[in-house]
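User: I'm putting together a teaching handout on how multi-component assemblies are represented. Below are the sequence lines for each component of a complex, exactly as they appear in our records. Could you produce the 3D structure of the whole assembly as structure tokens, so the students can see both representations side by side? Please keep the chain order the same as the input.
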Amino acid sequence: MKFSTRTRYGLRFLVFLAMHRNGPDFIQLKQVAEEESISMKYLEQIVRLLKRSGLLAVSRGAYGGYALARAPEDITMREVFISLEGSLSPVGCLDGKLTCAKFGHCETFEVWHGLENAMSDYLVKISLKSLVDEYLEKNKKKTVAAIPPAPMERSVINV
Amino acid sequence: MKFSTRTRYGLRFLVFLAMHRNGPDFIQLKQVAEEESISMKYLEQIVRLLKRSGLLAVSRGAYGGYALARAPEDITMREVFISLEGSLSPVGCLDGKLTCAKFGHCETFEVWHGLENAMSDYLVKISLKSLVDEYLEKNKKKTVAAIPPAPMERSVINV
DNA sequence: GGATTTCCTACCTGATTGATAGGGTATAAC
DNA sequence: GTTATACCCTATCAATCAGGTAGGAAATCC
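Assistant: Of course. Below is the structure of the complete assembly, with chains in the same order as your input.
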């Protein structure tokens, strides 16, 4: 049970926006794709999911780009994960996708239901801001590095 | 992010054993496969994972079968899930499977790490016994039905 | 020895993941 | 208005994985 690159890349995109709020109003997809070593065309599709969920403010046209629709402290990981994954449920029956012969009298239902709640309860407590703050705290630097890092190898798979 | 049938079927197998402890010492794979509407050959592979983890006592040969290696109250969902999934980690870097360019300075590491812990903390609190007991309580019957249910359609996907 | 049941390995098929590609549409700068 | 830049949408595709099938070897009971 692993989360897909869709969710991992989408989260990284949001973190990128959160960490560059002192910069220009809108951040271009191209910039994020390059600095995060993600295919721009692929990131495009992922970002669309976030936009549909209302997490992003968009400016089209030249010099346009994306920004967070709300303050980072008002965006929870729960919301982000649901936007990207569709739901948090670890089995289909919890979001009504599958008709299971055991539905309604399933011996294992409770553990799946409880697991979803446990994940939800954890993720709702983490905001985009708290995630970024914790990272900055651990890495003992208060601002983003002025000099962007050298481009990474595209072949390396990133979280 | 959905759990595979491997984990779902494996869990159901263990629940089946836990609910039939008043029966014969060893339960045949064939019986479980039929009553749970799972392909016997497929269940075979899944059960092997549980055996390797030491969760099952096995008797080979004629009249052989499987039984729980320990009392149901001593088997946690955490242990079961790890046996079947390999680990609880939602991303590869947490169990060292992927070398990620961001490892060691990853902005999103904390939420993945925290999510794994949240799942682990929940699952370790649920034992095979507590899961079964909760089911029996909700279904208001203290023993397993004497008459086995009619075989279900194989085509229906079960949790 | 024969019947039964677990153990092991290989194989197959369809769905999903992780992209890539190409064009269409909207907007801002000039 | 032109052009450049950026977002938007659909189709395609290779690789991987999920889910399941198949055949036989090894162990055990009678």
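A couple of points students might notice: Residues 28-30, 44-45, 47-48, 51, 58-66 of chain B lie near DNA strand C (CB under 10 Å from a C1'). The mean pLDDT of chain B is 82.
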